[in-house]
Amino acid sequence: MSTGDPQNRIPAYPGVERFIDAFDKLVVQPRRSRSRVPVVLLSEPGDGSAGRRIVAGLRSRMRGRSEVLAPHAYIPQIPDGADPPPLELFEHLTLQLAETMPPGTGELRLHSYRLLRSVVTAPAIEGLMERRHAELRNHCYAEHRNWSRTAQTLWWLGGRDQASGGTLLELLWNFIAGPLFQRLPRALYSWRANRRMLGRARSRSWYAEWVRRQHGSPPTDFFRSALDLVHGEPATDPERMDRVLMHALLADLDQACRSRMLNPWRRRRTTRFVLLFDEAGPADSRVQRFLRELRSAMEDLRCTSVFAVAGGVRSLASRIPDIDATGLAHAGAELINIERRGMTPGQPTGIVVPVTEVPEDDQAAVYWLGRWPTLVTPSPRWGPGAEVAGVLGVGTVALAVAAALILVPDVRGGNNDDPCQGSTFLGTDGQCVGVAEGAAGFGRGPSEQAVRAVLQQIERQNGEVDTELAGRRADDRRPGRRTVVYFGPLTGGKDAEDPVRGGTLAELRGIALAQQHINAQALRSGERVPLRVLAANAGDRFKDAPAVAERIAELAARDPSIAGVVGFGQSRRKTYDAIRVLDKAGIPMVGTSGTADELLRQGEHYYQTAPTDSRAAELMAVFATSAAMTGGQTALRVSLVADATDAYSNSLAASFRSSYGPARTDVLLYTPNDAPEPEPVPGAVSGRPVPTVEDLAREVCRAVQKEPRTAVVWSARASQFQLFLAEISRFSGDCPKISVLGGDDVTNALTEQQRPWDDFTGLTLFYASHGYAPTLAKQSPEAAAFLTAYDRAYSTDRTPSTKAMREDGHVALAWDALRYLAEGIDQAWRTTGSHDDRLDRGLLQGVLYQGLGGGGFDGATGRIDAHGAAGGGRVTENKLLAVLRGSNGQPATELLCGTVTRGDERRTWGPKGKEFPCPQR
């Protein structure tokens, strides 16, 4: 009758043999046939000890006589009112489970638990929001080094100062040791943590699903999402800490039981992990709370690797349903049924078994326990050494076969299927990103042919410059060419935002026209610097922008003729990262579009020809306040549509609400499912979230129906505007007409083949424009020159999109951006005294930093007078802005504010005799 430890035998209560038989079968049940097992709660009234004696016997049963038979952990009785610290139960369990791993089953590694333990015990993190996730990562890696000898050794090597002298070898060691042994392992740790905790797109991990249930959307970065779990002290939110740590622990235990072909230790783990609790205590005790989280987590994860038994259950909470057994024999029958048939989702997570102190002389129990005094576990056929040798043999054969498959094609002549050549590489969406000459590698998709045509035009113009300069003598005093890189999303993967809707095609046309205009002047006069343009594809919606910026910086370090970068047409967080990379490399940058104010704060090498979003939003607010937008009357309320994940949308929306007034503004937050950065930006504008574009249309219609003088202000992207209008048309019976005031990005919707009025005929559309060249042509020679160049290039193209781009501010802004950078290059060249070899990026940055001489120039979008950082800013003050009323024909200018040309500043707007003042900044 004795078990592994004679001091703790299982009492021979009636029916205990059926319960122990079921327990043994569930512990050693094969992995493939396992299902979730309910937590067994041995309930006893008063101060009885029957349940505690059974738990002690089970613990002894798994110890065996000479070695541990199954991994287990035992929690002794906790006195009433003496709850342990929040983490003590977890530490006790994990330590015992690691110590009771049977021989030949390897070391128990609890990666997810250790990682989340480091998170919940991290001190409160303060400072810049953009840096907090990095601080949390560093803290977790420091904790990781405490138990990983490899990580600790690498860190020690990277931190050693080997330079006792000054030899080249010692200096080289100091140069490479930190990045190689500290930063690289930490980056690898961060990558593995993200992959382990988030899973993949098609198979999210438990943590990603847990965060999705908490916040509505899955995380994209583990350490950013885990900031919500940092409270400085675990005791501040013990239930939440228990919940997340329990999920992590069970996920690790399930993972530890999964067999791997190349891991013989895992194949020898043939038993479940058993958790034993001596005394569960009353309903609100620490152990009972722990058990409740254990049961919920086992159900959530469908955990099959853990079997828990708790004795001393004095009372039960009614929060979780249980299976009620009449005694030990009944409980044994229930468990045998579960062992044979499994548990279905939704079944109770616990089974309550009443036990009382009775005589220990039940003959059936005495006889059975005498025949089976201890747990019987399967014996592996091969020892660990033989399995390791077999695994190594299989691995060697597999490597040989793989090497043969890889090398044989090369022997036959080689075959390079990589479509990305030169300074391009495969990006996030499987398209080539990076830097290329002209159209090479870009614009191959069916919706990108127009983009490819412009890239080919730029490539031809580059060739014309090279041909013209090839015949010059070495002592020629005229300037040589300089290279400018256009930085934007040139391609899109499957279901991505194509370059037409994203505004890239319009910008590229402006760049190509400006390059042709600049080079014609430069080659004719010999006193200006001709330009060569390279195209840098930043990926769909700038997803690959930081990596591409790194590639540009590498090229610029090797090629001093690269003068600067133009582009950055979309304000996104990846755009910010790219600007910081280029700013660190000392490369001047000029923006081609109206962007968030935050963009100017990313680096002092970035300059902007367009007004900031705050100025545009202030002007839109003035227009929404005074213009007759809604059926010939001014609007009384505004439904403001914004995307909480988009930096541009947040900047425009927050500034508009501040200028127009929060009391009159209802903010609707809509984020598309394919958002490149699904997490909200730091300090995102607050409002009412709507999950789908259909719900957004319904909310807008409801607002218009309630108050007909409600205007819609669209600060989101144009790519969602068309979908919104299509949904609005379905509810047109509720709101047959709506008035929309859009930001400058809405103009991208006007360049598509399908116009907004085709989707919803009841639309009245107003939109901000950063320069309407047809209006300025009479006052501005530069605007007239731009229109002439555009008509010369595209007069034969009579498609609606080409006509719309002639009136679109994006094309003219891109023209002005390249003209601005070219003017800086020309002024920098003049300061060299016609010594071409002295013209470099540092000199150009000095000119731009101080401000262009002569007070700037008249551009196609109004006066350009960015007076440089030394003068207080890198953006033109009182830059020209317009609000146009769209139509299927020619748009009408409703508002024009700012400086058109030197001496021509528009300070008021509106009908004659009823003018309104323009914002002045």
TrEMBL record:
Protein name: ABC transporter substrate-binding protein
Record organism: Streptomyces achmelvichensis
